């Protein structure tokens, strides 16, 4: 017997203060009592976006004004193979109400982990907690210049930052990381990059693995609990597979287009990137030859957003 295929559209609805709307599944439905992103199954002939608009009207009594793809998740449940097509809804009219008697809650993104959801939702929760841009610090800057640029980036609403400074000696990097953690507190999520031996020194920050580290450690599994972000730099299907194996929460995929800094690396192009992203279940930031203006294009190929160094670094820094 072939497994049932379910295509479901669901919404991460944000209000003006950045809270997210979740709903509790009613008693008479599957996964009763678990929380979910409002939405439902596509009807025959509908696109995912059309289904989303209809479901939000039926379940919440709102009219969707702006929606953008966030993440597509493929999940095999004992009863069905689910394709969960998650959109971000940032503008709507009307006040959401539980039209089917379901409980609703507006919560901060960081609180999502406290509401039990179906297993398929884990990557969507990660995607909802991450911004659309990932700033990586440029090489060969002295600590003062780095701190100055980071302050400017934070003032310009940078919310995910990777402190990459391969030019610094380890002691200097570690001192700098302490300062940057302080600057980021309450503003941005900080990812550090360096030897895994340093992990214990920085319990507050996430960790970004190089492709080389990924190869070395993937077989050992996740190096720390899920309360911190684990990310990895990937360039092909094999590295994405290792990222899934180690339990990475999100990845960068590069290079998408030719870049000045890596002219020798063959760019993937958007089509190949789209296929790789479709085969990977966690948020992907595309990097290399993309700029902050490419966010919409990134979302259109299934990516979380764009990552980068020079094109993302504050110009005065
Ligand atoms: N809406 C929604 N469904 C989800 C999520 N996560 C998840 O695994 N699902 C699954 O996707 C399917 C969607 O079902 P649904 O019950 O919302 O479908 P529906 O609104 O069309 O309801 P109906 O079939 O009772 O008319 C269910 O199997 C549900 O468990 C989620 O975050 N939101
Ligand atoms: Mg539903």
UniProtKB/TrEMBL annotation:
EC primary class: hydrolase
Enzyme Commission number, as recorded: 3.6.1.55
Claim: Translocase is one of the keywords in the record: no
Pfam family, one: TMP-TENI
Domain of life assignment: Bacteria
Catalytic activity: 8-oxo-dGTP + H2O = 8-oxo-dGMP + diphosphate + H(+); 8-oxo-GTP + H2O = 8-oxo-GMP + diphosphate + H(+)
Binding site for 8-oxo-dGTP: 25, 36-39, 121
Alphabetical UniProt keywords: DNA damage, DNA repair, DNA replication, Hydrolase, Magnesium, Metal-binding, Mutator protein
One BP term from GO: DNA replication
UniProt binding sites for Mg(2+): 39, 59
SUPFAM superfamilies, per database record: Nudix, Thiamin phosphate synthase
The Nudix hydrolase domain, residue ranges: 3-129
Cofactor(s) the record lists: Mg(2+)
GO molecular function, one term: metal ion binding
Classification via NCBIfam families: mutt, PRK08999.1
Family: Belongs to the Nudix hydrolase family.
Listed name of the protein: 8-oxo-dGTP diphosphatase
């Amino acid at each position: 017997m072939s497994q049932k295929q379910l295509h479901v559209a669901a919404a991460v609805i944000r209000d003006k203060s950045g809270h997210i709307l979740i709903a509790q599944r009613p008693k008479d439905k599957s996964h009763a009592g678990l929380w979910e992103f409002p939405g439902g199954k596509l009807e025959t002939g509908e696109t995912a976006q059309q289904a989303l608009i209809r479901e939000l009207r039926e379940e919440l009594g709102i009219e969707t004004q702006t929606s953008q793809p966030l993440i597509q998740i493929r999940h095999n449940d004992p009863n069905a193979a689910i394709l969960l097509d998650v959109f971000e809804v940032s503008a709507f009219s009307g006040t959401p109400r539980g039209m089917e008697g379901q409980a609703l809650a507006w919560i901060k993104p960081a609180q999502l982990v406290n509401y039990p959801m179906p297993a398929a939702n884990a990557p969507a929760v990660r995607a909802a907690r991450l911004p659309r841009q990932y700033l990586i610090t440029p090489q060969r800057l002295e600590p003062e210049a780095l701190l100055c640029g980071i302050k400017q980036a934070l003032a310009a609403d940078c919310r995910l930052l990777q402190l990459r400074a391969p030019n610094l000696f380890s002691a200097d990097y570690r001192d700098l990381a302490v300062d940057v953690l302080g600057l980021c507190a309450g503003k941005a999520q900080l990812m550090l990059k360096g030897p895994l031996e340093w992990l214990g020194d920085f319990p507050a920050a996430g960790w970004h693995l190089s492709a080389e580290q990924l190869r070395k450690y993937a077989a050992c599994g996740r190096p720390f609990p899920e309360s911190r972000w684990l990310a990895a730099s990937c360039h092909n299907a094999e590295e994405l597979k290792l990222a899934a194996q180690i339990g990475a929460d999100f990845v960068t995929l590069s290079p998408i287009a030719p870049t000045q800094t890596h002219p020798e690396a063959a760019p993937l192009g958007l089509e190949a990137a789209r296929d790789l992203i479709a085969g990977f279940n966690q948020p992907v930031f595309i990097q290399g030859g993309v700029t902050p203006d490419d966010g919409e294009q990134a979302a259109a190929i299934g990516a979380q957003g764009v990552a980068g160094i020079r094109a993302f670094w504050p110009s005065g820094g």
